[in-house]
Amino acid sequence: MGRRTGRTGGSPCFRGHMVIAPAAGRQRMIVTLALCAGVAALTLVSLGIGPVALSPTTILHALFGGGGDVQRIIVLEIRLPRAILAIVIGGILGLSGAALQGLVRNPLASPSLFGAPQAAAFGAVLLIALGWADIHSFALPVAAILAAFTSVFVLLVIAGRDTSLLILILAGLAISALAGAATSLTMNLSSNPFAALEIAFWLLGSLEDRSFRHVALALPFIAAGAATLMSQRHAFRTLSLGEEAALSLGVNVGRLRLWTILGVALGIGGAVAVSGAIGFIGLVAPHLMRPLIGYDPSRLLVPSALTGAVLLLAADIAVRVIPSTSDIKVGVLTALIGVPFFLYLIVRERRALGGGVA
């Protein structure tokens, strides 16, 4: 299993890793358990952070029906939906990033670089501007999903089967720019100035003032997207051999692409519909896990999802504790962290391209 058996193509960082032995089973289990513990601990912190600080004991009492009425309202109706959304949205972003990187065999692939969140945001913004978001609640995620699906599908068509890093980035930037321009045009043409202001703040990405209505709105689509991507995990492993080898082993690459696009669109569309655009978590999470888990795409999916949940929970906690005169949007914080990380990856890829196989 540690022997190189075929050329994988794609990024130099992905070549030769098809059959590189992944981390030992015990290490993977330890990492996964540590991530689960991190999610639980950060959830407890998230439930306790705010204008009214709550102790872990008070939180646990409120969760199980004890404590005072005020504490139960704060925990169950204000902070718990926010924490749940941070977990599931961060999870689907990390999972989608790992799946897309496995699909195109390129470490720079992510939902945000493919334009999926920006396109989903345009679909949702269009409905908000038209005033349909509150009347037809499920119209918002459906519009976001259709727009996300279209963006990823168009990018894969433009990039082609054996895409290069340059073409992938340029196509993603073009789709992101087009979606951003369409969103700006929608705001400019909106006859309601309050709707335009709401759209502007919503596009920054936030989990503030979310309720269980938002959880119920997003969770079915996120769960369906996650299940779709997880169902293709073994095909991702085979695809790391290269398309020709995968075809010879019975993997329908075209169908794999379609299912991956559908899974990403469902998950990202559902997430963006309630949180706005939150970028770069899908790019960062898989990279944090590869040194610990290994390069097998099938084994990277769940740890990447858990890492995404940890990152978004931590970011949402940070925006509440950073001193500021107004609330910092979580999408702004993730971009401030993600952009330097992305630039670092580009520099590393350039060195790999110049020096051969990384």
TrEMBL record:
It is found in: Cell membrane. It is a multi-pass membrane protein. InterPro entries: ABC_BtuC-like (IPR037294), ABC_transptr_permease_BtuC (IPR000522). GO terms for molecular function: transmembrane transporter activity. SUPFAM superfamilies: ABC transporter involved in vitamin B12 uptake, BtuC. The keyword Ribosomal protein does not apply. GO terms for cellular component: plasma membrane. CDD domains: TM_ABC_iron-siderophores_like. Keywords: Cell membrane, Membrane, Transmembrane, Transmembrane helix, Transport. The chain crosses the membrane at residues 30-54, 83-100, 112-132, 138-158, 165-183, 214-236, 256-288, 300-322, 328-347. Belongs to the binding-protein-dependent transport system permease family. FecCD subfamily. This is ABC-type Fe3+-siderophore transport system permease component. It comes from Nitrobacter winogradskyi (strain ATCC 25391 / DSM 10237 / CIP 104748 / NCIMB 11846 / Nb-255).
